[in-house]
Amino acid sequence: xxxxLELTKGKLAAWEHLPNKALGQNFLxxxxxxxxxxxxxxxxxxxxxxxxxxxxxxTQALSRKAKRV
Length: 69
Hints:
Oligomer: single chain
Order of helices and strands: HHH
Number of helices: 3
Distance between the termini: 27 Å
């Protein structure tokens, strides 16, 4: 199974996109940190507005906890 880093690199390569840090583009590639963020009780059963959804990694994780993303 591919790691989150490998999946992220693959998606960016497929779209021929290079992250631009000057534009504040950062991608969550640490699965443990993703679990910590998405696992916070503050999201459970709530509507969550995610700004700058990026590749959807966090969105997907939040959708398992939140009522609506």
